[in-house]
Amino acid sequence: MSSLSRSAAACQRILRPATARAFSSTPSLNFDKVGIIGLGLMGHGIAQTAATAAATKNLHSSVVAYESDKIFLDKGRDRIQSSIDKLVKKDKMTWSQADDVLNKIVFTTDRSALSDADFIVEAIIENMDLKKNLYSSLGKECKAGTIFASNTSSLSITEMALASGRPEKFVGVHFFNPVQIMKLVEVIRTEYTSMEVFDKTVAWVGDVGKVPVKCRDTPGFIVNRLLVPNLMQAILLLERGDATTHDIDISMQLGAGHPMGPLHLADYVGLDTCLYIMEGWVKDFPGEGAFVVPEILKQKVARGELGRKSGKGFYYWDGEKREDPVGMDEGVNME
Ligand code: 3HC
């Protein structure tokens, strides 16, 4: 087979729809011990998801949830507890099942607890230098068979894979917020990832109850490549004074069937996160016309208006509850 047809065949393998095995109710038991690094917005949900599969399907013997700082570890545990409380209140889980899920998680600030994990998902802050340092250490600390998976939403998986010293055992697993509810996980393969590691990861995603899709290591993978430019266009509409916050959001809800309008979603994701993603892409891919940074996004982040997490973004927020739009709409004149 020529190298061209070999790579075409490899490409077809990557892009083939998820196998039946990935959705099977019989767990594949590929990973006995799973580690999660970082228990923030995404990491706590990933730990809870893995622990739920451990408790209900016996998928893992334990889930090690690691944070370097005790304060963040406790915050992560509280987040999991509050999500579980919601599920119990809605009769989606009993108290005894909730206990089983929590009992599967080993909360720790001791990184050596991860050294014999079979699969580690990293969900720390989106900073390439920090991630590369972490992977360079993990590559030395963990057993040879440990597979590393980054939940990055926009950074290069290949760069992290090379820093780990074991690029063939490195994949991306991109979950969506809120992790407990959103069904999709993008599984990302670099040119170094072994097919066996990739297939095992796709199967694991199915085993924990999510729907895997496969993508190559490209900016934003599938969802964010389409979603984040869309959020930017909504912000630009507002910036130009073409329509109000309310009308932009309600349009995409009622006209396009989205559960949240784009400005609401930008607040929900975090305006700092949106800005960080787009600024990184503008810098790395200056020729891509879909990548633009609206001025008002920069200004809001500079003022500390980060959306839901800071109580103000395009809307005011009372904790989890969205309130009125912030007064950007005054400049909009439809006469
Ligand atoms: N844990 C447990 N349950 C939760 C939960 C959590 N963390 N968050 C929400 N829920 C439950 C609620 O209790 C509720 O349960 P019910 O159906 O039994 O009443 C259900 O989820 C729906 O929640 P709400 O009633 O509060 O509100 P909505 O019906 O509006 O749904 C939503 C909320 C699921 C967030 C929905 O608005 C939605 O799908 N929004 C779009 C989210 C989205 O696009 N996420 C992707 C963001 S992009 C991303 O993550 C990528 C990153 O890299 C940037």
Name of the CATH superfamily of the largest domain: NAD(P)-binding Rossmann-like Domain
Please state the second-level CATH architecture of the largest domain: 3-Layer(aba) Sandwich
Estimate what percentage of residues fall within beta strands: 5-15%
* Small molecules bound in the structure, each named once: 3-hydroxybutanoyl-coenzyme A
Looking at the structure, what is the overall shape? globular
What does the radius of gyration come to? 21 Å
CATH structural class of the largest domain: Alpha Beta
Q: What is the element string, with H for helices and E for strands?
A: HHEHEHHEEHEHEEHEHHHHHEE
Helix content: 40-55%
Alpha-carbon distance between the termini?
A: 67 Å
Oligomerization category of the chains in this entry:
single chain
- What fold name stands as the CATH topology of the largest domain? Rossmann fold
Query: What is the mean pLDDT?
Result: 91
Distinct helical segment count:
13
**Domains (count):** 2
- The helix/strand class is alpha/beta
Main beta-sheet annotation? 8 strands, mixed
Q: Name the strands of the widest sheet in spatial order.
A: 3-2-1-4-5-6-7-8
Unreliable segments of 5+ consecutive residues: 1-25
Number of beta strands: 10
